[in-house]
Amino acid sequence: MPVNLTAPDPAQLHPVPGVRIGVTEAGVRKANRKDLTVFLLDEGSAVGGVFTQNRFCAAPVQVCREHLAAGFGVRALVINTGNANAGTGEDGLVRARSTCIALARLLNVAPEQILPFSTGVIMETLPNDRIAAGLPAALDDASEAHWGRAAEGIMTTDTVPKAFSRQLTLGGATVTITGISKGAGMIRPNMATMLGFLATDARIAPALLQPLARTLAEGSFNRVTIDGDTSTNDSFVVIATGKTGPAIDALDSADGQALLAAMQAVARDLAQAIVRDGEGATKFITVQVEGGRDAAECRQAAYAVAHSPLVKTAFFASDPNLGRILAAVGYAGIADLDQTRIELHLDDVHVVTRGGRHPDYREEDGQRVMKKSEIVVRIGLGRGEASDTVWTCDLSHDYVSINADYRS
Predict the structure, then answer these.
(1) H/E stretch holding 176
(2) What is the largest CA-CA distance in the chain?
(3) Which one of the listed residues 157, 193, 200, 225 is annotated catalytic?
(4) Do 399 and 232 meet the contact criterion of CB atoms below 8 Å apart?
(5) In angstroms, what CA-CA distances link 86 with 38, 114, 176, 232?
(6) pLDDT tens digits for range 186-197
(7) DSSP letters along 71-99, please?
(8) Is 313 labeled as catalytic in the residue annotation?
């Protein structure tokens, strides 16, 4: 069961004018499951995207990068689950491009105006004939109201769909932001989500979409980890249809900052939902590192803690073996770290001061915190004023079972 995360109420997901979504069952890997989703974007929509930094990236990632660089204007996204189309060589590229061609013909647009996305099993041939055969049904299903269906249609090992929505007022107009994400394993930054799609009807200058996507990812999907593995298919796409509100030509304007804050909140909810639904997760853990010389070294220490199997299994067992956290900070790679300046808190419990056990710390207090489903680990480096935060989960028996049986 996910950690304090429930399935979204479709009625609470606001439609985004200019975006229609269709979902169908194409039998990509298994029968009787939603596995093919199409986003249809009105002409004039602007799109930005960031993708995995795994050098062994999937064919759809390569094609998405090519099509975004071509600059023809994106008119549709096509997303399949069940098959990652990764580790498939030149044949995988041919099949990803053929999917774009099939949808482009149905929409009477150029193939370069289609962005393909895949998630699922690696090193399996993409059944692009099944996808092409399913496209007409997906188009027939298209509706502005289908965000909830889309959240279901992109799932793999997720236990619940992930979708969030909010609205704000800009220039007297109501602007909408709605997004979906999926992912439960093979999650680590650069990018740190399997798939994420965020849309708004705000009038954002097209040139801002790519930097906006990077900024949103840095504050959300690049701050989460489940198992420390960077996927071959990670993709995060931001869409602005330009239907509503004042023109936003700079993100540092008053309207730009208000919109950015609202979009960042939705992106963060989507990213945290992935951790809450991490494979086998029973606890949601916030790792805050402060007192660093810069944010980069704070992240370095935070991820050393968040990636440590020893730390994560201790949290699963509610075992206050907190020396594991200190050890992870110590091997994070901060060469001139002074251990006598380290402070450690678990929620309100002061565990370590000046690099040693706090005189008032009692193990039963640490265990009390570790039994909670949501825990904040706060680490002070005593080196400066910088800080940063990442979100992770524990590592349970179920994580091993789920991944041992993934292909069966």
Answers:
(1) strand 173-182
(2) 72
(3) 193
(4) no
(5) 20, 19, 34, 7
(6) 555 554 347 999
(7) TS---EEEEEEEE---S-HHHHHHHHHHH
(8) no
